[in-house]
Amino acid sequence: MFKISLVTLSVAAASSAYSAGFSLGDQSATASGSALSTAAASSEDISFSYWNPALFLNAKKNTFYISGAYIIPKMDVSNIEATDASPSGLGGPQSISGSSSNTDSVDNTIVPSLYYAMPLSDDTVAGFSINAPFGLSGDYGDDWAGKFHATETGLQDIALSFSLAHRVNDWFSAGASVQVHKAEVTLKSQVGNTSSTFGAGALEGSGDIEADDIGYGYSLGVLFTPVKGTRIGVGYRSKIDFDFEGDVKYDNVATLNSVNTAYDLINTDVSDSLTFPDVLTISLEQALTPKLKLGLSVIRTGWSSMDEGLNIDFDSDQPNSKLSFGFEDQWMYSAGLTYDYSKKLTLRTGIARDNSPVTDEYRSARTPDGDRTWYSVGGTYHFTEMSSATFAYTYVDIEDVSVDRTDLPEDSQRGTYKADYSSSASVISLAYNMSF
Length: 436
Known about the structure:
It is built from two helices and 19 strands. By secondary structure, the protein is mainly β. The chain is elongated and about 75 Å long. It starts with about 30 loop residues before the first helix and ends with a strand.
């Protein structure tokens, strides 16, 4: 029996090279310059409202902030070993030919974000923002040895948020937002096997899943200023439930279907449900001198909402396709400094440890994720009191990991796969801030 080897939304080959899992950490060039060390407490600008909507109160006038990050990932896949899922009647599993390494499977990408704040009074600010909270892209190609596990994967999540922030008194402020998320998924892999019984490649085709959905979420945040120079912020972004619906399209599966007596691989509708994780951020911004500030943050991402992974349902007699994630809730820890070098120039630096939710048992070609360490520098130049430009650079060092998919029952129809992964990323962020 031949079963479909496509699997659904997961962290792809590219993963999110910037943040653990498939979250996108660069929602603000200002925040990135100090490795998100003041994410929920910063007094600098409105872009920190992503982590804490109360920080829209950083706007004293109508304010526009636009930011973009250019992510340059690098991933070397080596020592690749794979077999297909040929039944015993066709000689049993066959080794898959192809290069023992892959160095061109991740794509550079741009992550944009936009914020606008409009003060309604001295103590109340309305705002909206557009962000890409989650995303990934990667393409191993159709001819590599792990092609029955993954060839191409893409995810794009765009969120539109509407926020309101209010200063209750001199030491306490609060904010909230509602969010509309539009998520789109593209997944491709080869199907069948490499048996030469019917001629080389005769039992191998390709499949392409595309699906989308709209989900809804919210965020809440508070800011405490117990004494002058000390700001403590707490922000929470909710889970987002998606019921993905789309279709699967196959190519070159006629011979494969002719020998499969159980069912045919046919173009049909597909569906699955997935809950993107919630995020809790706790931050401190502490003035050390009139010019120097210390930032400390902890960020918890509730990846266990995706622990069971995917279970794609096909609107035909094709059996479901399953991929377990085994994700665990994880924390990110960061520390940074912000220094007002002059009235015109502010400098930043920071370091962070971002722990991966992926467990060794379930790490796969689509989830080759490892713990990350960020090293960040940045700065803001103020052209006038009303406008400024910000730059940040982050080097992301990702721990080397190995994938060993040789004994999981859910891979019985995909074959086995083993490989070693070495990854890193450079992230260049730019932003422009203007008040009027």
